[in-house]
Amino acid sequence: MAVPVAGRAGLASAHGGYNLPVSSAPTAPVPPAGAPSGARKALAGFLLAGFLLAFLGAILPAWGYDREPANFLTVGNYFLCVALGLATSFKPARYLMARRGLSFLLVFTCVLAGGSLVYLAIVSPPVSAWWRAPGMLALGLSAGMLSTALFQAISWSYHADAARAITTGGIWFGLGCLGATLVAIGAFNGYNVAATLAVMAVAPLVFAAIYYRSSYAATDEAQPAQPTMRQAFADFRSLGAVLFALLLFFQSGNEWAIAGWLPLLLIRRVGMSPEGALRILACYWIFLMGGRLTAIAILPRVRHGRLLMGSVLSALFGCVILYFTQTGFGAFSAVLFLGAGYASVYPLVSEAIGRRFPYYHPGLFNGIFSFAMLGGMLAPATLGYAASQWGVGVVVGIPLLGTCMVMALILAIWLETKVTGR
Fold first, then answer.
1. Could you tell me the residue ranges of all domains in the chain?
2. What's the distance, CA 326 to chain centroid?
């Protein structure tokens, strides 16, 4: 369930990863001054969240899933397993936090993530693909539980400086996505796949050690008055909240459809090497993260309608280039336009969301993030099933249609706002 959460910062988004607030555009991931060390470490934990969620798209070429179209169905099943893990993570996370505390939950999820990567290293090809499905399920479960714990752990930073805290978390998340891609390139530079995954497993274990030495309260103290749960659900049932949730769902699907399938598309359609395709994927993360920060900086100085139209046209143009390109330069140009187009969507609507909804407790932030990420994993899963029937070229289709859907939802939100006067 998605619960709209807004304040000075706006709304959370996926990737790159959250809706970066209009009012702040820091250049480095630095938490609010005076924040407790535990809160600062929690903000850095979003790096691990991005690392885990970007893992599958980065590791597929190393596993050899670019070689046969028959493998595309298996890839779809992997993404579906990650989505199922995300969808089922909330209740176990709340249970462990209530029984054992927030610190235990943070350590447990990091250890689970590290164990999942070690398991996937052991069952890497040529082991049967079915053995990797439980590892993907556990990876999605650990990523979902980690996000629940992190949103609770950043409460102090959120209330001290909401804009800066959310922007910082988004930067860390984007760096984690980029980091997973760069480490995966190591599988083509003298390291075998198992060794690469073993190196990846070190990251969550390092965070487990960090959180083991930190302390967190499971509930916030001395926080501003928050709406009741009944009020939160009442807002969620409103048409505006549903439209915002759907916008996040589809936009996240657009971004992660490209992130999950871009290397396979470039290898199969353009003839790029796996290493070259992963470098283009790394550029995609850089353009998406950098474009989002740039959008925040220029938003007060440009007309929103023009920026919105330019963003949609940029994303559509990027999809067209990606479909027809036969060169590495064309692929680079495509991700440049895609990153620029996708980057501006969330900052453009954040001001409207901030006026529409009150200051919700940051723990409820996790609802909208999880809903968006569910869309982010279901889109590449759907692409896997479609590609197994119609070829890898269909990969561009869902982001193309999804971009049009986002445009329609933004127009619907604008119309609903005009009609209701909110």
1. 37-220+228-420
2. 28
Higher pLDDT, 280 or 291: 280
- Token pair for 229: 């749960």
Helix H or strand E encompassing 389: helix 365-390
pLDDT at position 98: 87
What span, in angstroms and rounded, lies between the C-alpha atoms of 110 and 406? 34
CB atoms near residue 27 (< 10 Å): 8
Query: What six digits make up the tokens of 328?
Result: 């590495």
- pLDDT number for residue 203: 92
Q: Which of 399, 401, 407, 347 is nearest to 163 (CA)?
A: 347
The pLDDT assigned to 368 comes to: 64
pLDDT of residue 238 exceeding 60, the answer is yes
d(CA 372, CA 2): 8
pTM of the entire predicted model: 0.83
What would the pLDDT profile of 125-172 be if each residue is shown by its tens digit?
889 889 999 999 999 999 999 988 888 887 766 666 655 666 677 788
Question: Which of 7-11, 77-81, 122-126, 296-300 has maximum average pLDDT?
Answer: 77-81
For 216, counting Cβ atoms within 10 Å of its Cβ (0-12 exposed, 13-18 middle, 19+ buried), the class is: buried
- Do the beta carbons of residue 324 and residue 265 sit within 8 Å? no
Map 264-331 to HEC letters. HHHHHHHCCCHHHHHHHHHHHHHHHHHHHHHHHHHHHHCCHHHHHHHHHHHHHHHHHHHHHCCCHHHH
Homologous superfamily of the 37-220+228-420 domain (CATH): MFS general substrate transporter like domains (1.20.1250.20)
Q: How distant, in Å, are the alpha carbons of 37, 40, 106, 229, 364 from that of 215? A: 9, 12, 10, 27, 21
pLDDT in tens, 305-321: 778 788 888 999 999 99
Q: What is the three-class DSSP state of 359? A: strand
Q: What is the DSSP string of 131-176?
A: GHHHHHHHHHHHHHHHHHHHHHHTHHHHHH-HHHHHHHHHHHHHHH
Distance CA 94, CA 150 (A): 12
User: In Å, how far are 53, 112, 308 from 268, measured between CA atoms?
Assistant: 23, 34, 33
Q: Which of 103-112, 201-210, 262-271, 343-352 has the lowest mean pLDDT?
A: 343-352
